[in-house]
């Protein structure tokens, strides 16, 4: 790769939500240690495709550039991932870049991830407070519990787990693995546990746990290595116990 002078990019583009997708190819100057974001920035600087035609600059989203914000999710060589951590030197050329298919395309590589944020609202993925902020030190928790919650808290709502999951499709309303992890995160918080049963009920609604096919693609694709399958297993057990308690109380 170090002897190569150009990088060949094949980018699936779309001019608007209701427009048809098409493919543009670009050849840009190679520099060592480039990532996909820097390659897209090179196209933005000089938006000329491989045919020599002047085109509109490719549109994409990015923010932190260190795999924390989740904004730059896209499909690179068939794999959903973060563009900021996708190094050109480790990718086979031509590098094929597409928007994630799970979400509606706004333009080019920019997608609308509203379904993820709506799912978080549905399961009340927050800690309720009563307006009193000076409450002193929080309750102590065990080291095992702290580590478990830390792993779950690393979710950046990037959408990669939904793109990788075969159960997230036009025939299913599955909200996705990420939301189950967030239910676990907030249900294991000493204050968040007050709304534990509401969150479990939300996971039993349409598009909840029953839609998971246990393919385990999510845990393999997650860029943060979050133990999503463990969270799903824990939530299944807790939801089953919750249902038995409801039946016994009738």
UniProtKB/TrEMBL annotation:
Its cofactor is [2Fe-2S] cluster; [3Fe-4S] cluster; [4Fe-4S] cluster. It holds the Pfam family Fer2_3. One of its GO terms (molecular function) is metal ion binding. It comes from the Bacteria. Residues 146-174 form the 4Fe-4S ferredoxin-type domain. Keywords: 2Fe-2S, 3Fe-4S, 4Fe-4S, Iron, Iron-sulfur, Metal-binding, Oxidoreductase, Tricarboxylic acid cycle. PANTHER family: SUCCINATE DEHYDROGENASE [UBIQUINONE] IRON-SULFUR SUBUNIT, MITOCHONDRIAL, SUCCINATE DEHYDROGENASE IRON-SULFUR PROTEIN. This is succinate dehydrogenase.
